[in-house]
Amino acid sequence: MKATIYSPGPADQELAAPQREIELPALVPISWSVAGGMLMGGAAVAVLVMTDNLSGHGLIASSAAFYMLGAVIGLVHGLLLGVFGRPDGVNPRQALAGMAHGLIYLVPALLLGWLAAGWVAALPIALRGRHLVAGAITAVAWLLMIATVVVAISAGLAAARLAFRRWRDRVAGTLLVTATLAALVTSFAIEQPTVWFINVRLTFFGSMLFAVGLTLWFYGPIITVALELLRRAAPYLPSRAPAIGHRGRELATRAAVAVVAGLLVAMLAVPFHAGVTGLPTDVERLGTLQAMLLAVSDAVTDELLLRLFLFTAAFMVASRYMSRHAWTVGTAFAVSMAADLFLHLPTVVSYGLPGPQVMASYLVSRLAIPALLFGYLYWRRGLGTAVTAHAAAGVAVGLLAA
Description:
1% strand; globular; mainly alpha
């Protein structure tokens, strides 16, 4: 038998041979991890101590804890951006291999960053004690942190540009993400939200940060996934629905249908506000302008989550396991309606409606029926029609029941 000598090819050498230079897919997570740790474990701690929101006695422990938290957050985001923002011609497997080769620098970089972060956090002590040597070391540490942040921003922007160019639905996705941010900022400016799992009401500044975080870390990803699912669901969709944009007479027809549907939903809601229950409307609580803005904002965020994402995702999952088309569509309706009820049930319970019959009537009239109607409009007429109908219903309830 003749022996065969294996000769590694270029692909094997690329995966096996360690690289001395740090390529972009590795530079992003490394720089983001170190920069995140230094910002949270250094600059944030220094600001907290200077504003008397953190005791200087626990400076070292606080700096270490905040540094680890910031490093982990930066690393996770950097890894994701490094994969999606990989250079052209590099597949995800090659990007991960480049990260693995470059991560050998991560541990020493994190150690150096941690040492520098401690001196960055010591800025209040250096200023109050007027120690020249400590002040000089602190100044160098701040310069090192700024340089690290600049490198992280530069690498992140380069990767973000590549990721955005690779995003097939970047136009529609950017519009929807921007609309989401505007809706959340408007809604949270009118009524500061309460974080339900810790029952803490946010301040105005905290609400704005929460709006940005919710847009980037929740709505951005689900919008991206939903638009990709819509591409794959195109062969099963009725005509062009649930498309995002329409033109001319078709747009006018969908707008008219949405307004009529919104008025019908409002007619179901008026008895609960003008009748014996006496529930206050948003117009009565907040004023006309604020109530109108809140209705539109809630319509945008609710329809993006419940219809664009959940309805579409449920349809795609059901289509893989169910043979009949009617069952897959019915499953999508059921999932989006159940999610609608689940999300709004705590608010309904807080109203203190008199008796289970009134509660059941309210759930059916104000949540179940509108969810079915908005789902049908999304499926047959598109996302814009569902959002418009939802917004029209909210506006009409405030005006008719005031």
